[in-house]
Specification:
The chain has 7 helices and 11 strands. With 221 residues, it is of the alpha/beta class. The chain folds into 2 domains: 104 residues, Rossmann fold (3-Layer(aba) Sandwich), CATH 3.40.50.170; 95 residues, Formyl transferase, N-terminal domain (Rossmann fold, 3-Layer(aba) Sandwich), CATH 3.40.50. It has an 8-stranded mixed beta sheet. A 3-stranded antiparallel beta sheet has the order 8-9-10. A hairpin with a 2-residue loop joins β8 and β9. α1 packs parallel to α6. It starts with a strand and ends with a helix. The structure holds ligand NHR and glycinamide ribonucleotide.
């Protein structure tokens, strides 16, 4: 019997990454217990996924006039009540203020759909296609104050084909995220992964670059 790491998952939308985490935790592939799912959107389908798995879902909407600091103060209070050992951003679409990020630094992960440091921000699939890139992918990183700028832990890399569109890239990227994100969370839960002086340490070694695997390798894992 090993202990389960309590985690909170922050979502804004459909929550397919949340589902991958719920599934992996549910069949013993991931030693975590999801203590809360928090959404900034009341109609996020991910809340239904949480409910179906018996996980507490909470909605924290930005009420009229609430500024970022006010919102993040309320979010910080909610997180402290859940008291997770790790906060997992999974399609959470709000920028978090410096104070909140600092409170959870080293204990907050995000999955971002690009090969960071390329293509920070939004609409990555479209921008990558418009730029005529040969490759695309997705990254899991520790969240720091700098948007999509925290140290990158792992990446899944795919080759863009002539028939790829925003939609096909989204589907391919998400299939990879559903393998990679639970794997990275497992490393953290097993105490193999940490952030130290702004760098990623895996199994006691500072990574000079992320763990990069191609599409076939992640899909086989
Ligand atoms: N907060 C900090 N401080 N650092 C990061 O690295 C963060 C973060 C909050 C969210 C996820 C990120 C992504 O994976 C993330 C990383 C939202 C925006 C954004 O522009 C950008 C990046 C990410 C999430 N949000 C708009 C805002 O004004 C709203 C956009 C919308 O609602 O459609 O918050 O890409
Ligand atoms: C994921 O592909 C994630 O990389 C991306 O949104 C999707 C969420 O899907 N994140 C961002 O774009 C953050 N700005 P999901 O709700 O089905 O997990």
């Amino acid at each position: 019997m090993s202990t389960l790491l309590p985690i909170s998952v922050l979502i804004s939308g459909s929550g397919t990454n949340l589902q991958a985490i719920l599934d992996a935790a549910g069949d013993g592939r991931l030693p975590v217990r999801i203590v809360s799912v928090i959404s900034d959107q009341a109609d996020a389908y991910g809340l239904t996924r949480a409910a179906k798995s018996g996980v507490p879902g909470m909605v924290l909407e930005a009420a009229g006039g609430m500024n970022r600091e006010g919102y993040d103060q309320a979010l910080g209070t909610l997180l402290e009540k859940s008291n997770p050992g790790l906060v997992v951003l999974a399609g959470f679409m709000r920028i978090l203020s410096a104070g909140l990020v600092r409170d959870w630094e080293g204990r907050m992960l995000n999955v971002h759909p690009s090969l960071l440091p390329g293509y920070r921000g939004l609409h990555t699939h479209r921008r990558v296609l418009e730029a005529g890139e040969s490759h695309h992918g997705t990254s899991v990183h520790f969240v720091t104050e700098e948007l999509d700028g925290g140290p990158v832990i792992a990446q899944a890399k795919l080759r863009i084909g002539p028939g790829d569109t925003e939609q096909t890239l989204n589907a391919r990227v998400q299939a990879l995220e559903h393998r990679m994100y639970p794997a990275v969370i497992r490393w953290f839960a097993q105490d193999r992964l940490r952030m130290a002086d702004g760098h990623v340490e895996l199994d006691g070694t500072r990574l000079r670059e992320p763990v990069i695997r191609d599409e076939e390798t992640w899909l086989r894992s």
